[in-house]
Amino acid sequence: MASIAARQHVHNGGAMAMAAGVPGLFHMQRIFWSFVGAAIATATIANVLNRVIAYQRLSSKNKPSPSKPESFFFRSHATITATIREYSNYSTPLSFRNKHFYLPPVGLITTMVAYIVLIVVCVFYRFNVKDFRDFEDIGYRSGFIAVCQMPLIVLLAGKRNIIGFLSGMGYERLSWFHRWTARALLFTVLIHMGYWFTSWDRYDYIMVKIKTDPLTQKGIAAGGVLLWLVISSFAPIRKLSYEVFVVQHIISWLGFVAALYFHIPDENKIWIWLPLAFWAFDRFVRTMYIFYYNLAIFHKTSSGLIACKATFEPLDENHTRITIPNPPITWQAGQHLFLACHVLAPLSAHPFTIASLPEDGKLEFVVRAKKGATRRFFKYAEKVWPSLPSSQANQKGRSVFIEGPYSKIRSLRQFDSLVFIAGSTGATFTVPLMRDVVQQWIGSKSSSSPFSGFMTPAGAVTRYIKFVWVVKRKSSVAWFGSQLEAVIRDVESLRNEGLDIAVEISIYVTCDDMLTSGQSSIKGGDTRGNLTEYAQASGRESPVDEKKNLDGSIAEISSISEDKDCCCTRVITDEDAIVPPCNCASKRRQRESGSSTSSLQKTARVVDSRIAVLSGRPHVSNIIRKTAEVALGEMAVVVCGPAGLVQCTRNAAVAISDDRAVHKGTGAQGIYVHAETFGYA
Q1: Backbone angles phi, psi at 573, to 5 degrees
Q2: How many Å apart are CA 590 and CA 561, to the nearest integer?
Q3: If we measure between CA atoms, which residue out of 23, 41, 20 comes closest to residue 31?
Q4: What family is it from (predicted)?
Q5: pTM for the model
Q6: pLDDT, tens digit, 9 for 90 and up, residues 184-215
Q7: How far apart are CA 307 and CA 327, in angstroms?
Q8: For residues 624 and 417, what is the distance between their CA atoms, to the nearest angstrom?
Q9: In this structure, are strands 502-509 and 612-615 parallel, antiparallel, or unpaired?
Q10: Are residues 323 and 417 in the same domain?
Q11: Can you tell me whether residue 98 is helix, strand or coil?
């Protein structure tokens, strides 16, 4: 009996016939890909529909409420979308011993649970899992289902791939699915091995197979490499050294593919050639782009061999501004690219969000120095920048290589109101997005982009923007101070021309002991024009009422005083109130400084007086709710920052949408959320 099982395992492969009424092995592979294809098709339809909606809104921007659905079809679509968002965007907060754990949103978890269910059904369909006679058949089918997952895993890993193009999702979001589908593959392989081992164990045949059967040996080798691929991809391990992780990951994957190739029957080798072809295509296209963007011979404005020269400027004790003038590429706000300076950090390329617009004529990045390449960039900037004359600082630079741009976000100019929430360097993502909408208001943007994939009219239907930036120290405001002040000036000029728009910018400083709050930007009916309903509908008091009860304007959580830093953790629930500075610096320190309230206010004023500078933390839910209550159409919330800020923003949007019964007969309009978390690895 054991010898018969051994011969079947070695020779029959995919030709093995199943019992009567049991679907064949190749049939179940087709079933698996039918469901996967249906999911990709659904994402594609949603992407196309989103682009159609954007086109419709921007084509109707002269209507009173162009971002509000009118027809029965679009109202029904909005209701379904709101329900899906409320379910899928929520993330359960978890904490243990003062440590916080941030789970993925429910939508992502549900998708992967559905994927696991699909695998289990495809493996066990029409089999009796308790009948020993079905164990070998389950072993065969689970192997076939495992190997047919290979193309999907590779497609989800590529930076330029079909799924991303069809679904409108950037590779950085698909990479999450890549990691979890790889873990699902390991789960399938464990089923495959488990049923074969259980079948052999009945005859005490496991060690015999391992020692004598080359097919089994290659299968165990492939399973071992796959286990290593999964374990080494866990965040704590891969973040130890991402460059090392990438190199060993590719080598390990090629080893896994080689072992798998010799383990599976010939009729299944198509599932090996397909992912290899997808991987080679991705690498080829990326290489061609790298050559084109980085070699000066392709660009008339460049000289020498390398097209891009970058300057490195230290901003404070931990951040570097990297600037590439006259870049050979074009991009959209919200995108990032990979930057490598092999002279300073050999064989290392890191993704950085582009903090400038194409209209600026330069690529600009604000990079936090952590370790490795980013720390070397900062040390080089500290060493070189002070020695450069101001007239030459922007003319000299190191040769750098770039790859990209990458990332995708829905066109924000199709939304009635926008809320931007950024933590620290998250402003590199949100500031360009806000500036891009302002450029659309001004009319200096073109009507289409090579990255949009869909011709859309110029302009914006957006009426109101709320921009919130949370920083540790007020000195950080200088990173984007000039850009924020330019936004205020441009908006004021447009309002004077009669354009019904408004922008509010609030900067929250959490760790600065010499700071008092400012007032909300762009206040009063004179500056808001026809948008005074924002203040009325949200119950805001007049700016002249400066003696309101402070108990209603802040929620004091705690004040932490340290030797060097003063971190204010209170949450400001009303920006229009006069809020005293956080009392986290020692009184002795304040007496020695001899500073008064007026001098504190003078110190705090690091930007235009119409930009609020507050001491504390924002009440995210209140900010979103006040905007949602007066939005005349769908609004968007864009957040970029630490995981805690992102989770808080997502959950706040979900709660507000549910409380207001968005698109469920109340007239409340939808809330779209786009979230970016810190970290790439």
Answers
A1: -95, -15
A2: 13
A3: 23
A4: Belongs to the ferric reductase (FRE) family.
A5: 0.85
A6: 999 999 999 999 999 998 888 999 999 999 99
A7: 8
A8: 10
A9: parallel
A10: no
A11: coil
